[in-house]
Amino acid sequence: MQIAININALPYQAEPALRYFIQMLFQKWTATVGGHQFLFIGQKEENIFLINDSNNSSWLEAPPPGKTIAYQYWQRVRLPVILKKNKTEFLISAGGLNKIPARIPSVLLVYGNDLHQRKDKGFAKLLQQAARIIVFTDKDVAQLSDEYNIQQGQIVVLKAAPAFPTSPLDYEEKANLKNRYTGGKEFFMYSGIIGAHQNLTNLLKAFSVFKKRQGTGTKLLLEGPVYKKDKAFTDSLSHYKYRDELVLTGELPSTERASLIAAAYALVDPALRPHAGIQLLEAAAAGVPSLAIAGHPVLPTGTYLTADMTDYVDLASGLMQLYKDEGLRNQLIQQMAANAADHRFEKAVVSFNQILQPLLR
Tens digit of pLDDT for each residue in 214-233? Predict the structure, then answer.
């Protein structure tokens, strides 16, 4: 069967940990499933999917998504012609408002900004057209069902997972990473897109309160790509009162990011609308506690410390709790580790295959 996989929106729509999960999910699935040919459609920098042993994949470079005339022409004219010429029989679209030829059965992976389209008519049409919609949390199912009147049987939850095994580091390994990144100091860590929309302003305010009250050398490390359109926020970092206690690493390779999480004192996710939570799952597997909003769609209650992420004072209280209460910290580590086993990458690949197999021939 000729299957096209459109990942054109992936670099622009998914934060790095989720992007890497989706990349590796497709790479592993296409390398192991037999009897099909795959055409990947996407950006040049995402061309890693031909690295498998089956030689059943090819690559088509696409223009960056946007409102440009070139992209609209690509979407409406060139892509349908290419898919027809390729004799595409099935299409998998990984996010983005990508127009889908009506004659081709399709599966949509819905995540990130797509979940905040606010009843967009074009997006509604894509959802109605899809043979199956894949999301990453039960909360996403409820949202799409309510906002777009989608039958819940059409929507399937795929549990995301770290794309490679993570485990606790020993003392020397942690010390080496701290020496490299924080001058040997303990650190709280955030991993994700660096920008104001990620509620990082409140995190910085909370860290200021923490530093003032605790008088500790603990640092705050921010890892991830900088959102270039949010120049006001990135410029403000140079004027931050505790700038010398703030470490910005940029986006690190996935293995390095996971190792750094394993060396952190705690992982902090200040998101008001958290999603797949892969970084928190990496922290759990590495024996590192997390601080996040109550009612997280991935993490069970009691496995992480909660804070009101709209209130930087409450967030600061959470940082101080983790810093001062070693018993609480150890309790969270134990409870989180028990939950981490339910989110394994191999299990996600099997589940993805089970979702798709009834739709393929």
Answer: 989 999 999 998 877 777 88
Q: Are residues 76 and 193 in the same domain?
A: no
Residue 282, number of CB atoms within 10 A of its CB: 29
- Euclidean distance between CA atoms 49 and 66, whole angstroms: 23
Which CATH number characterizes residue 139's domain?
Answer: 3.40.50.2000
Question: Are the CB atoms for 309 and 272 separated by under 8 Å?
Answer: yes
Which structural domain, as residue segments, surrounds residue 179? 171-340
Q: What are phi and psi of 199, to 5 degrees?
A: 65, 30
Please tell me the pTM assigned to this model. Answer: 0.91
Is residue 248 domain-shared with residue 144, that is, in the same domain?
A: no
How far, in Å, CA of 120 to CA of 139, rounded?
19
Which candidate, 5, 64, 2, places its Cα nearest to that of 40? 5
Is residue 201 in some structural domain? yes
Give the model confidence (pLDDT) of 79-132 as tens digits. Answer: 889 999 999 999 999 987 666 776 889 999 998 878 877 677 878 888 888 999
